[in-house]
Amino acid sequence: MIPRYQKIVFLVLLVASIAMATLLVRLRERAHDRLLRGEDIGPTTAPEVAPAEQATLFVANDMDGTIAAQESSLPLPRDPGARARALLDKLMEMYAATGAAHPVPGVPRPVLQVFLLTADGKDRPDAAGQLAVVNLAGDFADGHPAGIATEALTVESICETLHANLPQITEVRFLVDGEVRETLAGHADLTRTYLTTDAAGDKLPMP
After folding, report:
1. Cβ atoms of 130 and 136 closer than 8 Å
2. Pick from 144, 141, 145: which is nearest to 178 by CA?
3. Residues 126-166: pLDDT tens digits?
4. pTM of this prediction?
5. What is the dihedral of CA 161, 107, 24, 118, to 10 degrees?
6. Is 126 or 107 the better-scoring residue by pLDDT?
7. Between 190 and 3, residue with greater pLDDT
């Protein structure tokens, strides 16, 4: 016979799992609806009129499996969502460059959108404790080199770069062409939420 306390623990875990699943479904539907309506919160690259600023990019290195901060000057728009995408565009541009330490094939638009949402699913770009929903292009995900380490480095470098320049971002989720995808290229889990605090201190857990 199952002890009463085990039944209570099981029920609590079940309710928590259902609540989390419901929240993730709502966030996905919200992001997907915005994609269908053609809402685009920022240009593919930062506008030329935006002033150049110093930004900190966290760049992966496949040789030793590390991620190091690298200062870069680039034009950054004021809008936080557009700013986030400009930062990631620059990071992906570095990965696509010849001789990159973390080579990833380049595509025209590797990052389609970045949505910044609060825990209640509201679009408030300046609020603290935000969830960044990074919508990657299918061509980028399809062409990404497969491997536990290389995929984890890409995900971790994205999370660290976002948090370093937009500290209000504490969580990151990924979509591919506006849809939930199980993995980046067979290994890195894209169905979970990544905590940027974990990324800043230690390696992100790998599935």
Report:
1. no
2. 141
3. 567 899 999 999 999 999 999 999 999 999 999 999 999 99
4. 0.72
5. 40
6. 107
7. 190
State which amino acid sits at residue 155.
V
Written in H, E and C, the secondary structure of the chain is: CCCHHHHHHHHHHHHHHHHHHHHHHHHHHHHHHHHHCCCCCCCCCCCCCCCEEEEEEEEEECCCCEEEEEEEEEECCCCHHHHHHHHHHHHHHHHHCCCCCCCCCCCCCCEEEEEEECCCCCCCCCCCCEEEEEEECHHHHHHCCCCHHHHHHHHHHHHHHHHHHCCCEEEEEEEECCECCCECCCCCECCCCEEHHHHHHCCCCCC
Tell the residue number behind the tokens 């939930």, with chain if given.
Answer: 180
pLDDT tens digit sequence for 37-52: 554 444 555 444 678 9
